Amino acid sequence: MREKRFRRGVTYNTNQTYRYYKKKYKQTNVSRKLFGDITREFYELIVPEIVKNNYIFRMPANMGKLFIKSKPYEIKFDEDGNVDKRKLAPNWKKTKELWKKQYPDLTMQEIYNIPNKKLVYHLNDHSDRRIFKWFWDKTNSIVKNQQLYYVDVTRKWDRYLSNYAQNNYVEYYE
After folding, report:
1. What does the alpha-carbon distance between residue 160 and residue 169 come to, in Å, rounded to a whole number?
2. In what order do the strands lie in the sheet with 130-137?
3. Residues 6 or more apart in contact with residue 143 via CB below 8 angstroms
4. 131 falls within a domain
5. Measured by CB atoms within 10 angstroms of the end CB, which terminus of the chain is less buried, N or C?
6. Is residue 125 within 8 Å of residue 12, measured between CB atoms?
7. What pLDDT, on a 0 to 100 scale, did the predictor assign at position 3?
């Protein structure tokens, strides 16, 4: 089981946002399901625009801007001249294919128990060795204690960005 990493900041999810909404607007007839549907539909409309068209989403109430940032990915070497793999992301699909070729008679469970197996890493050759990240620009935000807040995009939208970037060329902001 993976350990959850502690992140500095305040975490609000859709349930907490809905509770706040119901508390503030007591007369409303919006159900939890409808609130969730509206939220999901909003994301379904805005996130593809951000990803495909390099759109900058200006959040309401001067909360800042959300967009995708691009930065070059440099492969670093240690003192011995070997590739420093600490910041490389494993390509699990290709790694498992390699393991199946290397150990054809073993089950995946037996393969997992083998120490120091070779891993295949993502080198981002498809994007000219660039990394794409969701970025919340809070420079003009008027939110109090803004350094405590962060945007944690769901896995669905991270994968959407990854798949789109692998198959299409978009110049994201640096």
Report:
1. 14
2. 57-58, 65-72, 130-137
3. 61, 62, 63, 64, 149
4. yes
5. N
6. no
7. 44
The tens digit of pLDDT for each residue in 48-88 reads 999 999 999 999 888 899 999 988 877 788 888 887 777 77
Under 8 Å CB-to-CB from 40, ≥6 apart: which residues?
A: none
Task: Give the Cα separation of 173 and 108 in Å (integer).
Answer: 41
User: Encoding tokens for residue 174?
Assistant: 């640096």
Report d(CA 12, CA 19) in Å as an integer: 11
Residue 88 near residue 121, CB atoms below 8 Å: yes
Total number of domains constituting the chain: 1
Verdict on whether the full-model pTM lies above 0.85: no
Give pLDDT tens digits for 147-160. 877 888 889 999 99
In a domain, 115, yes or no: no
Spatial contact of 64 and 140, defined as CB atoms under 8 Å apart: yes
Instruction: For residue 112, give both structure tokens.
Output: 């997992």
- Give the structural domain span for 69: 28-73+123-167
Residue 146: predicted pLDDT: 82
